[in-house]
Amino acid sequence: MHPVRAPDELSFHAFKGGDVGSRIDFIFQTEHFIATESAIDRTARDRRYPSDHYPVTAVLRLK
Fold first, then answer.
1. Can you give the residue range of the structural domain that contains 14?
2. What is the per-residue pLDDT for 1?
3. What is the tens place of the pLDDT at every residue in 54-63?
4. Tally of structural domains, the chain
5. Rounded CA separation 15/28 (Å)
6. pLDDT tens digits for 8-20?
7. b/e for 17-47, b at 16 or more Cβ within 10 A?
8. From CA 40, how far away is CA 55, in angstroms rounded?
């Protein structure tokens, strides 16, 4: 969905947060679907994260 790299697509953050860096997490799809939305969820609670990677989400539509 985002073929061109951007400076703010960090997905691995080592429990430190932030958004500057490269993506290393992806969602792959077959030709049977079309991606209509995608996002990196950077939600934290009291600057605490449930994982060292941000969740990557997508909405897929069946062709």
1. 1-63
2. 87
3. 999 999 999 9
4. 1
5. 25
6. 999 999 999 999 9
7. eeeeeebeeeeeeeeeeeeeeeebeeeeeee
8. 6
